[in-house]
Design goal:
The structure is a homotetramer of 202-residue chains. Helices cover 74% and strands 0% of the residues of chain A. With 202 residues, the first copy, chain A, is an all-alpha fold. Chains A and B meet through helix 8, helix 10 and helix 11 of A and helix 8, helix 10 and helix 11 of B. Chain B binds a DNA duplex (21 and 21 nucleotides) through helix 1 and helix 3.
Chain lengths: 202, 202, 202, 202
DNA sequence: TATGAATGAGGTTTCATTCAT
DNA sequence: GATGAATGAAACCTCATTCAT
């Protein structure tokens, strides 16, 4: 029954439908080549309605980047709260979690890359993402240091390690196009881990 | 005579000026948000002249991707011809070469990423790049195998190693925005190398 | 309420305003030399509105040809239903009707001629007109035959008579430029009739 | 041998090649949809050369109309000098001559119709053609009068007869698209003649 | 609140014409 | 005289946004 929903809930739901359509289409076609009319169609609303919930195409793009970012943040900045054990264990679990996250939300990763590729075009969003990266590094820094002290990780600048890790996450989205299947992502995880320390197969 | 250049040479030179302007602007602004008028201005020619040398905006984009690709190809598919020594040495030199290459041509790498991010939008170009990646893997495969036999490299699928290497190359372009300076790229090289085998600092 | 008209009626009306403007300007200036902006201005709507109702300039041209054709058709293919009496009477009335029709809609006749003059440029429209001509001949054929049996008409191929009749209708639009006045068209009618049989003045 | 030609002759010949190409293409595609480059190609010269012989596209169009007009004129204004015998004979021969003329030069007739259809667009050319029509009427007028006096022709305004004759000539170009073959044109001639007087078969 | 017709700025592309070689 | 590269005005068309219903 639709009628069980309050008005507010209905509105939230419609807003969310539109946002999901936007994420899908922006990620597939980029900002410029996505038409508001298409988003409306994908969301099953008239395109006037899109402007009821978002003031402009640009604002919708920002929401499409920033709102999922909030959902994803915990997995990157609550490292020690989420992943327990030895540093190596923590990092292993973290990588597993991240790879799985982007395997299921690869379209969102694409969106992020669009912003990273054009800092001057999307300054506000870029700043947000940059801050996010910095927070991640701050969070993971002590873990890496601890791992280095225990001799598990390379004696390398923890920032570099963290950044190269983000690089490989980003890059894999580009390289392994549609093969983000269960089969490969265990492998990917292993390779990502090797940026931290010398990990042989088991 | 205005110069010693023949007519043909002048034409080639003008074409190249336009292509360079296109590479710069396409890489900065993407295909859709780059205006042909801007390319013309950047190249210092009139608007219509762009269409004298390239039939359409799309064709110019293709040329901007494919022509530099030809220049870059040798560094990826003549591995054993170019880089000599032990497998570890070969890979080291190769990574150095590639990182330096993309440090100086980071704008071109951005172009490639635009295509990789949208295979359906640029099918022809994507196919070309995909073939390029496959050739690279074919070339590097025996080197990795040799390195594995000598115990330098991880006992990992050579394809996976090669692909994760390409991932980190691509990803680093996104992560280390404008810091591709001399200082960091030695570090980057080191991290890339760690995808092949367990490399400690020296 | 601004008016009693429903939304749908208003849309139809606007579409029709644009179509009329198009017929006028296309007939005066031809397809290529008519600018969509001019049509919009003539119709009193903005530029973009034209494209709300017609997908392209070409489609608008097709509508400008085909829609009035439907209105005109009955006068050419319902000969025996519309015009009564002896064959001679039927033909007389028919010619009268046609001449008057084209006197009032001379601009539309001009449009038709543009298509007839360029079958390869407008294949779809040409086919339509060609079919129309054939239907007309089919309809008038028995009337001419009957007239021939009664000795009123020349013993000539009815198709030839019909086609020469259409020729003179078309040709007169070109020859008697703006003189399609009441004065001359009785005369024109008489001359057209003489293609059917030997008609003296009365 | 080309070398037998004087320079002047060569130039004339090239000019004529271009003009013929122009007549062909203008008649097929109209003024606006014919590109100078196409004319050049058809004529086998570079398109800069077209502008060596004609100052503009418009001027070339005018030449394409006016120069063949001079060739055709004699057949329309030297009626009594060319065609001998009784008025009926004169008219018969004239019609024969004209139909044959336009059968072989139907493309030129198409050009004329383009101008007749747009007097305001081509005022200069239209005036020229209008004068031509008037001259024709002047020339044929006495012949018709004579025929009327002899009882061969309808007691109709000779101008009307002449104009309706021109109408059918023009119209037949539109109606009998590509069937201007030997078979039909005897028939067409007969129908045209019937605008003058009551002519039975044979 | 939801709709979608109206708007017009802005982009790509064509093509006549110029002019240096 | 012949060529064809350069130019830029002008046209079509798209699409974000507004706003009346």
């Amino acid at each position: 029954m639709n009628s069980i929903l309050t008005n507010d809930e209905k509105k939230k739901r419609k807003r969310s439908t539109i946002l999901d359509a936007a994420i899908k289409l922006y990620s597939e076609n980029g900002f410029a080549e996505t038409k508001v009319a298409e988003i409306a169609k994908e969301a099953g609303v008239s395109f006037g309605t899109v402007f009821t919930y978002f003031n402009s195409k640009e604002e919708l793009y920002e929401a499409a980047i920033l709102e999922p970012l909030e959902e994803i943040k915990p997995y990157f900045i609550e490292i020690e709260e989420r992943f327990k054990g030895e540093p190596l264990e923590i990092i292993k679990e973290m990588i597993d979690c991240h790879v799985q996250l982007f395997a299921t939300r690869s379209e969102y990763l694409r969106l992020i890359q669009q912003v990273l590729a054009r800092p001057e075009r999307f300054p506000k969003l870029f700043k947000e993402l940059d801050a996010f990266v910095k927070s991640f590094i701050d969070c993971i820094y002590p873990v890496i240091e601890a791992g280095q002290r225990l001799g598990y990780f390379y004696e390398e600048s923890p920032s570099l390690i963290a950044e190269s890790y983000l690089s490989i996450l980003n890059g894999m989205r580009l390289t392994f196009i549609d093969e983000y299947t269960n089969m490969v992502w265990k492998d990917i995880t292993r390779q990502a881990l090797r940026l931290f320390g010398p990990i042989s197969n088991i």
